């Protein structure tokens, strides 16, 4: 019996390690100033003395949802493994964080209407009224490329359609040109330099009308799931 319990404890430890992620928040840009490292969900960064203080982030493992209010409320953004020297739109505005790629079947997103469940295998489109199923022609159910990039915001201008890793967007004539994007399938890492270097962001299925801090900065992309 003791051996069985010991084996169970070891298995639990390895299971936790397999799914545990880690990120470090810095009070100044370029990974300077005070810091705090988080390896579990943080519903309120005030508990860590770091509410509305983060100006740069290093994600060592896992994909994390960083939100502007406690309890994962307000605006949120996903950050995959990588270094984020600045946080445009979220500088000194992060109050909670949680890992969202632990293999769980569902996660929840908060908008003005409260908590809503979302299946990981189901994408939603977000507009001013919150998350909703796309009703603009049903493109999400049609065949086609996994990723569509547009040179203008709001899905306007020249576009390129891709379904494979691209080490240099120059190869497809779209280096530093993407301003908006539609992802039909998969989770993709987009990086500011060729060969997946520099600042990167991980995005899943959805419609991204404007790429904010990655606007006209994407030089490589690869599928991570």
Automatic annotation (TrEMBL):
- The coiled-coil regions, if any, are none
InterPro entries reported in the protein's UniProt record: Beta/Gamma-Crystallin, Beta/gamma_crystallin, G_crystallin-like
Q: What keywords are annotated for this sequence in UniProt?
A: Repeat, Signal
Q: Which PROSITE patterns match?
A: CRYSTALLIN_BETA_GAMMA
Signal sequence: where?
1-20
**Domain of life from the UniProt record:** Bacteria
Beta/gamma crystallin 'Greek key' domain location, by residue?
A: 21-61, 62-101, 186-225
Would the keyword Repeat be found if you checked this record's keyword annotation? yes
The record's comment on protein family reads: Belongs to the beta/gamma-crystallin family.
Q: Which PANTHER family match?
A: BETA/GAMMA CRYSTALLIN (PTHR11818), VOLTAGE-GATED HYDROGEN CHANNEL 1 (PTHR11818:SF42)
Please give the name of this protein: Beta/gamma crystallin family protein
